[in-house]
Every structure is written in C-alpha cells, then in structure tokens.
Amino acid sequence: MKNRIAFFALLITLQSCDSESKKQQQVQSGKILESQSAPIKENKIIQPVHINIDEIPSEIKYEGKIKNAVRWTDQLGDHIVMTSETGIYRSKKFTHESDGGDAEIFAYHFIASNGIFKQKWRVYDFISDCPVDIVAEFVDKTFQITDLDDNGIAEIWLMYKTVCHGDVSPSDMKIIMYEGQQKFAIRGETTVMYGIDDKGQKMYEGSDYKIDDAFTKGPTVFLEFAKKLWAKHIVKT
After folding, report:
1. What is the per-residue burial (b if ≥16 Cβ within 10 Å, else e) of 117-145?
2. Domains of the chain: which residue ranges?
3. Phi/psi at 126 (nearest 5 deg)?
4. Between the CA of residue 196 and those of 39, 171, 189, 225, what are the distances in Å?
5. Of 1, 154, 198, 235, which residue is 20 to 30 A from 81 by alpha carbon distance?
6. Exposure letters 25-63 (e unless 16+ CB within 10 A, then b)
C-alpha cells in the first residue's frame, strides 16, 4: 500500500514538473495563453471631439474663420483648442505702403476653470501689405491631439506656412507643439523645384530648418514624430 502511495505521489510530481516545463516553453516562445500572461499596461487614450461653432462657449473670443475646433479631457482638465484663418483681406491693424493685402492665422487653447474656459496660450502669425501672392494657412491634415509619451497630458500639434512672393520660391514653415505650457518648435522653409539642369536633373531650393532646444532636450518620441511630420510636408507641390 505504501508503495502505491509513493508511486502516485511520484507520478503527480512528474506531471507537475512537466506542466511547469511546458509553461516555461510557452513563455519563452511567446505563446503563453492570455489567461496565464501578466497584465498589459493600457495606453492612455485621448479622444478629442470636433465641435461646431454654435458649441463654442460664449466666453471664448477668437478672430478669423474657424478651421478646427476640438474638445477633450485629460489629466489637466477640460480643453478646447481652435485654429482659424482670416484669408486674404486688408486689415486696419497694419500700415500699408502699397495696395497689398494681409492674412492672419490663429490658434487658441482654453482650459475650463470652475466651468469657465480661460485662455492658456495663443499662436499668431501673419503676412501684411503683400502686393503679390500671399500664403498664411495651416497645412491640411496636420492638426493633431496626441499623447505620445503616454503621461495622460495631451500634445497639441500645429503646422502652418506663410509667405509673400511673386515667383516659385520656398514658403516659411513651422511646427508648433504644446504639452501643457511647454512650447516646442521647428522653424524652416519648404522645398520647391525651380528648374532642370543641363543633365536633366531637377533643381531644388529651400529645405533649411532649425529644431529648438525643447525638442532636442525633450522626449525622443516628440522629436521623431515632428521630423516625420516635417518630412511629409516639406516638398511644395
């Protein structure tokens, strides 16, 4: 009888060892069952909602025509960010020495405090008294709200171009990003093709840019994202 008990005890021990060995093999091969795996950290997701002009609270004041307006909540609170453009017009803000036109762009960030939205920052740029072609506009499909460093605080990305020119030449281009009150920027110019050389090769002008210290000293993921965004839009078509 004692021999049988010892035999079954040995059998159970061997089965347990075999099961543990298979489990270790599954872990090493990446095939461990979901029920056996350790909890996976969930990414902090920030989901901005587009809002219409009539949904903008009455205390919020802005200039230009709304291009984007979004609202979201993160660890810092309830946010609204808007971008707007005036288009080309003649403004009383500027002194005019010619028949030139003007154009302005704006971006605003508001955070709710006791139910009232208060402005945290504004981005503003313009072209004034330009007698030739004017560009002062946000680059299409570059306005984004992200949380790349996964800290529950949104990053707000803006990208725009400005230029006054009457020929084929580069535009000034900027990426402005905010995380909270920290501002990040890349400033430079677009690249344009201006001709063909004697060998039939395309000739380009522009492409210089400068990355500010906030990007170089900040999280690597911010700079990587900014460089990809810049590269995608640097060539003027």
Report:
1. beebeebebbbbbbeeebbbbbbeeebbb
2. 2-36, 49-233
3. -165, 165
4. 58, 20, 21, 33
5. 235
6. eeeeeeeeeeeeeeeeeeeeebebeebeeeebeeeeebe
- How many CA atoms within 13 Å lie on the side-chain side of 98? 8
Question: What is residue 56's predicted lDDT score, i.e. its pLDDT?
Answer: 97
Kindly report the pTM of this predicted structure: 0.78
- Residue keyed to tokens 């060539």: 235
C-alpha to C-alpha distances, 72 to 10, 46, 147, 220, nearest whole angstrom: 61, 7, 12, 25
HSE (side-chain half, CA atoms, 13 Å) at 41: 4
Q: Which helix (H) or strand (E) holds 68?
A: strand 65-74
The pLDDT tens digits for 122-139 are 999 999 999 999 999 999
